[in-house]
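Example 3.2
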Amino acid sequence: MPAETHSTHEPVTPDEVFAMVRSHLAEILEIDDDTITMDSTFADDLNADSLALIELVEALEEDLGERTVGFTVDDEDLGDLKSVRDAVEYVIARLGATAA
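Structure, written as C-alpha cells:
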C-alpha cells in the first residue's frame, strides 16, 4: 500500500499531543518547557504572538502528518486557540475527524 493511504502508527493520545505542543512552544518561544501547562494561555502566560502560533501549527502538521495522513489545522481556526488546552483539544478533535 502506498504510504499516503494508511498509517502504521498507533492513535495519538492527548498526553502525546500535549508533549508535542509543549516541546514545540518551548523551542519556538525559547522558554523552559516546564513553564508550559495545559492551562497556559498563549498571549498572557506565554507571550506568544500570531507568528509563534503559526510556527506551532506548522510543526504540529509536520509531526502529525507523518503519523496521520491528511492532518491539517484550518487557518480560520487559529483565532479560536487561546490556550495550550485549546490547542491540544483541537488537535485531538481533528485527529478523530481524520481517522473517521
